[in-house]
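help with this record:
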Amino acid sequence: MAQNYFGELIPITLSGTRNGFSVSYNIVLKLAPINEEYRVSGAVTVMFARETYVYSTLLKAYREIQQHLPIQSQYVIPKCYYVHQEYLKEAIALQDMTVEGYRPYVHDMFLDLDHTLISLKSLAKLHSLSFILQNKKPQQFEDIMTICVPLTENTNSRYMDIMKDRLDKALKKFPASEITPGNKPVSACMIDYQTTRKCSPAFDVMYLILSSTNSELRNKYLQQLMEIYYRTFEIAIKEAGISSQTLYSRQMFDSDMKVVAPACLITANTALWLSNGLQEEGHVRSKHVWSTKEEKDKAVEKYKTIITTMIDDLTNFGYISIDEL
């Protein structure tokens, strides 16, 4: 049920015998697109190279760190059984986490409060591992950063071009005068590391809150969401023997949230443009494109409502100024 714009996801069960005993492995095979026309820009190739690196190298380093952390501060990492990096034959064989009880959230377009809180806790644990690695093994951290480089015009101009293109398309939908539950989850497993890069952890937090919650939840629980994230991060850092005050204080986090807000809005816009069926051309297209004008008009209005509430909320929270847009 997961959406994947950059390849295929195939669930597989491998069965056999080992030392006379029956064994089976439930995996998800992630395959890159094999159509060379789709790969002409090189963006997908870079994404898969980075993701195979994350699963085979970065998360391996995180596993080693977690051996010294209590279970409550450990980040859920699927096993990676195999990676293949040959061009047009890229593949990653990952543990199928649905067998462990994890499910994609499909109840609504936006997460409810319980799922948002558990996701932010998981995100905090992931971020703490990066800080611990940088503090405990600085050379290994620097080696990793040669792959997971910050997003700039020089490192990924194609990605930034896509962001700008979707923003231009979005602005055409807005006349200037208009811009103004299931069971409770207990754990979250995050996947898809194709755009992993060195960046402020505030970007992930702001983007998750902005793109995965509705306006009502944000207005009612924003402070609680930020508090639960930072408290989880702080505890994980402390358990590694590191002071969060010197490494990444709450004041630094709050300041970063304001810095990253405009970029998060632009990135959320791109995701929503895709998910609402409005990207009809290019290598990365919407999964479901509308067939009638009435359907498209309805999707445009839905999309405009969501983006407008995002802008209103960010403005009201003091993260952006309407004059900056």
